[in-house]
Amino acid sequence: MSGIRVMLVDDQELLRASLRTVLSADERIEVTHDVANGGDAIEVVRRYRLDVVLMDIRMPRMDGVAATAEIVRIAPATRVLMLTTFDDDELVVAAIRAGASGYLTKDVRPAALAQAVCDVASGTSALAPGVAATVLDLVRQVPMRRTAALDGLTPREVEIFGLLARGRSNSEICAELVLSENTVKSHVRAVLQKLNLRDRVHVVIHAYENGLVGRNDLPD
Amino acid sequence: MSGIRVMLVDDQELLRASLRTVLSADERIEVTHDVANGGDAIEVVRRYRLDVVLMDIRMPRMDGVAATAEIVRIAPATRVLMLTTFDDDELVVAAIRAGASGYLTKDVRPAALAQAVCDVASGTSALAPGVAATVLDLVRQVPMRRTAALDGLTPREVEIFGLLARGRSNSEICAELVLSENTVKSHVRAVLQKLNLRDRVHVVIHAYENGLVGRNDLPD
DNA sequence: TGCCGTCTCACCCCTTGGGGTGATGTCGGC
DNA sequence: GCCGACATCACCCCAAGGGGTGAGACGGCA
């Protein structure tokens, strides 16, 4: 059989299991992998050809947006479809800017989910009700729309933001990302300026208040 | 048939659908209702006899803890089993104090979930791995244990903690509390030591992770 | 009475962090 | 080809923060 090859990425095993059931009921779809975090997802993408990655945004280890950016970089033919609890504007924009082909919320009907997987596999887009497909290109093309929470940050800065939000010090960041401390400080300064935050303490507050990190995104 | 009558309460339709599938596979269980929020759940409990309510904690309209309290009040025979993404201490305690008979996280295995439903229906308890059933009574009986997150702090230090969690600098704190900067630094140091936190950034993280401040406890 | 905990404050240290400026190299678009 | 965005790094400055020590005032309690 040559169905659409799909990988599930979600930290909830129960949800992965049920998604597998739901999607496997559609004979066009073949769920070939499921993993619990972004890091594992990237490993799979490196090794296997996939058509669609169904990805949660909120995950431990590596969040969905960063994972999406990495996946579209190393496997441009693979479509990433976000599936998440939140329809938060900033996350939608962040995910789409990272290269996601669609964005569904978890209250989607099972049948609609399967259809959406087929849609993105065929190169079209899938968005939760109300949002038009044209929005995708618009968001990608418009050079600078201020959508507040993370918008305006470069991918690297988003990465830095994530580490700041988890309480990392500059030296820890420069170790984790293999950068010089001066570089880290440059990025941190850019993040503070662009988000109009006073210091890294307020970065953490901003992150939690906007749901950009959640419980269980524990520092270690 | 006279299976265990179960209602599902979760705002994610997809999860409800899959839970229904998973649970219906067990012939001891009969899923008789599913609703999207606590308010609707209470309406159902008023009208029908139920054995087990499988309840998410995070929901719009009426949260799971409040709904649980109301359900055990109006239908003491009905067992409430929390099913949630978080295994956060405060939420566990809150749910159990509200009268929940069990607390599972969503990474539970499908088979274990079905078994847990049967367990609570028969009057026993179900807790996520590692937590003993005896904890339930203990938690309910102990009058008021400061849930460790702020344990050991003096009143003044708790006050300082609150300001730290909202992103205040030392100078702002000394202005707000009319103290010398040296005093503020002493208190801050005490807070960091007692909670075993590295710096004020981690104080903010600690506060959010333990639900000591929430959304909308905005800095200003 | 003396002891202890708490709150207050002072002085010292030095690392960390925020802010400014500027210089590379690379990449993609016009 | 040029230009802008991005990422990288280097220097500078200095305020803010974390850490140690010690000490005076006040209250409760044995």
What fraction strand of chain A? Answer: 5-15%
Task: Provide the structure class of chain A.
Answer: alpha/beta
Strand order of the largest sheet of chain A: 2-1-3-4-5-6
Total number of helices of chain A: 10
Mean model confidence by pLDDT of chain A: 76
Residues in helices of chain A, as a percent range? 40-55%
Task: Write down the CATH topology of the largest domain in chain A.
Answer: Rossmann fold
Largest sheet of chain A: 6 strands, parallel
Which of globular, elongated, flat, extended, rod-shaped describes the shape of chain A?
Answer: elongated
Number of strands of chain A: 6
* Element-by-element helix/strand order of chain A: EHEHEHEHEHEHHHHH
* CATH evolutionary superfamily of the largest domain in chain A: Response regulator
Supply the CATH class of the largest domain in chain A: Alpha Beta
Number of domains of chain A: 2
- How far apart, in Å, are the first and last alpha carbons of chain A? 43 Å
What oligomerization state is this entry in?
A: homodimer
Using only C-alpha atoms, the radius of gyration of chain A works out to 17 Å
Which chains make the largest contact? A-B, 33 and 36 residues
Query: What are the segments of chain A in which pLDDT stays under 50 over at least 5 consecutive residues?
Result: 129-147, 215-220
CATH architecture of the largest domain in chain A: 3-Layer(aba) Sandwich
GO molecular function, one term (chains A, B): DNA binding
Modified residues (4-aspartylphosphate) (chains A, B): 56
Domain Response regulatory (chains A, B): 5-121
Protein name (chains A, B): DNA-binding response regulator
